[in-house]
Amino acid sequence: MKKKVIALLGNPNVGKTSLFNRLTKLNQKVGNYPGVTVEKREGTLVHQNTKYHIIDLPGTYTLYPNSLDEEVVYDTLSDTKGSYHPDLVVVVAEPATLKRAIVLYQQVREMGLPAIFVLNMVDEMTEKGISIDFDALRRLLRTEIYQTNARTGKGIEELIAGLDNDPSLYISTFQVPAKYAAALVDAKRLFPLAKEYSTWLNLAQENSKVLTADQRAGIVQIRQQYGITPQQLQRDESLVRHEELDRALEQIVIRGENKALTTTAKIDRFLMHPLIGYAIFLGVLLLIFQAIFAWSAPLMDWIDNSFSDLAAYLSAQLPEGPLSSLFTEGIVTGIGGIVIFLPQIVILFIFISFMEETGYMSRVVFLMDRWLRPFGLNGKSVIPLMSGAACAIPAVMSARNIENPKERLLTMLVTPFMTCSARLPIYIVIIGLVIPEGTFLGFNIQGLVLFGLYILGVVSALASAWVLNIFIKSVHKSYLVFEIPTYKMPDWKNVATNVWEKSSGFLIGAGKIILAISIILWVLGNFGPNDRFYDAESYVATEQPSLEGDELETAVASYQLEHSFLGYIGMGIEPIVRPLGYDWKMGIGLISSFAAREVFVGTMAVVYSLGDDVDIEDDGERTTLFERMKNETNRNTGRPAYNFASGISLLLFYAFAMQCMATIAVVKKETGSWKWTLIQLGFMTGIAYLAALVAYQLLK
Amino acid sequence: MIVQYIIIAILFIIAIVMVIKHVFPKKSTDAGCGGNCKCDAKLQKN
């Protein structure tokens, strides 16, 4: 079977990813480009005995990179020996920004790469008042032009059939300005086999990765000799191309009234209003958190009961012994403790994807820019901060879009304060235990508290940025330049794919670590270092001779847990967590959740299940996770373990603490500095401990 | 019964290795894998 690498290239917001989804269907995966943390989407398509390996390159306006994303595009296209170097580039455009896409197309062709041109969103031409002479455009571009609508699938078959065709020969139209001709002649000596435009690109690029050290030194010398800078070359090329294209497109593209823009302008009158815009944004956030609580409750109850039933079923079916106990008390209970939160996470991602798909997220970037600047951040910081509501790991990575190094560093340092989905299970379970049900001004009180915790996340991120901004100095001037797209109905397939990717990623990523930790906890809780664990019954009978029946069994189970390995570890750290209102069992939860926050609830489910002396096969005695936590007593205070004071203390601890090793690893990778990683870890943990301590001591 | 304890011991060791690998990822992490290096490596291989 023939193999061919196809790269999808285009400006942001031209429907490139929708087209990628159409071409690859479910045969796609998300990874990273080698050596960098830029997300790489790739997939496969088999058509007429050819296997196409399709790469969805990050959206870019130019081949002159200003960010890591754009660097990846240039490196992929220019590195002829790279494994992702394309056999064919598919340049994707949309009618309203045709000229910019043509500039990108011309640059690619002049590098010597074969390319075809796809005009996506063709159905919007009428609404946008645009008419195009496609025959003339075909002659101008010297390639086939495919008209598609990736949302409906229109034109996709024709495009797939065209992937095997070779575009006709392209003759460069770019005339190098005369003032650079001598420098270019000298540069050609460094690249004797390269095309003239590739040599020009090497002269105009700031930090190309494909050059050898000698070539790089030679380029620097030529620039110095002729007194030229890469920025001058880039600017002049852009001017030449745009002037030429303005003339060429005059007869090809006819523009009338843009109704889409009119509709967008009408909507933006409200959504971008200096006052109403912010009120609407706040309302949207409130709606999301209300929905998370109100819509998911029945599903959560169902999942909780199902796992409880599954544990009972396994207990009845498996032969009696430690392995059966490991499955029912350890694995099923631990996994159940995380699956229960899937409904909320799906709801959260549906809202985030919806905001991205409709174009509202871009407005949020714009709205927030002026408010984020005093904190040393940039409007683009909103994307990492909002993504932080899902998971800090991809959120920290998404900060690579921010060009200014200081703003990028600040964004990475404060993003983990945002309430990630791993905190959600902890918040939901603790709020459910310590905050009363009911309504306030028509709002669900528990939903309001959750909303408050999200606001707390935002406030602490901003406050930390403000403090760090004082200490971190920057030499670069910062500005926000980006394109606000017109409003669109969301592509529900994209929403579904995104929700599926993020939710399954959370479930698989979290599920694996919780499975492992559940096994470890069960083993540590079922074995002990001395005979106080193994002869617990005789010790309890001696110490409390009056106990008998169920009371004796419960006392033995509790005594065993206290004298297990797990018990001794918990007791060891209890002095540190006692001032925060926690007992040793909660201390174990804090330690295990350092691997990942969401592990806390699963840990508590396993720990309390071990301490229970319940006949799991008896419907009357079986308890759900919530009931087990509600019934737990703090042995130091004699009060419920999850009372108002300890609950608020726990909520605050998790709101601030950097309880996620994977995020620490990513921050280290992205900042390239242990210094900033450790500062962040110390800063967040210190605030968390202090806030929890103060809250408990005031409220107890 | 001894077989059950051997299985539990093996599962315990595997679990500890899984946690260590999660806490100290070797490769760069990515969004789809929730920060898990093994998942990332599998994706690269595919």
TrEMBL record, chain A:
Under SUPFAM superfamilies, the record lists: P-loop containing nucleoside triphosphate hydrolases
**Matches recorded under CDD domains:** FeoB
* Keyword check for Transmembrane: yes
InterPro entries recorded: Fe2_transport_prot-B, Fe2_transport_prot_B_C, FeoB_GTPase, G_FEOB_dom, Gate_dom, GTP-bd, P-loop_NTPase, Small_GTP-bd
How does this protein sit in the membrane?
Multi-pass membrane protein
Domain (FeoB-type G) ranges: 3-169
- Please give the start and end residues of each transmembrane region: 275-297, 331-354, 375-397, 409-435, 447-472, 505-524, 644-666, 678-699
Q: What keywords appear on the UniProt entry?
A: Cell membrane, GTP-binding, Ion transport, Iron, Iron transport, Membrane, Nucleotide-binding, Transmembrane, Transmembrane helix, Transport
Q: Where in the cell is it found?
A: Cell inner membrane; Cell membrane
Extract the Pfam families matched here.
Answer: FeoB_C, FeoB_N, Gate
Keyword match Acyltransferase: no
Which NCBIfam families does this chain map to? Answer: feoB, small_GTP
Query: What is its biological role?
Result: Probable transporter of a GTP-driven Fe(2+) uptake system.
Q: Which family does it belong to?
A: Belongs to the TRAFAC class TrmE-Era-EngA-EngB-Septin-like GTPase superfamily. FeoB GTPase (TC 9.A.8) family.
Name under which the protein is recorded: Ferrous iron transport protein B
TrEMBL record, chain B:
Species classification:
Bacteria, Pseudomonadati, Bacteroidota, Sphingobacteriia, Sphingobacteriales
Has keyword Transmembrane? yes
Which UniProt keyword terms apply here? Membrane, Transmembrane, Transmembrane helix
**Superkingdom of source:** Bacteria
Q: What is this protein called?
A: FeoB-associated Cys-rich membrane protein
Span-the-membrane segments of this chain are 6-24
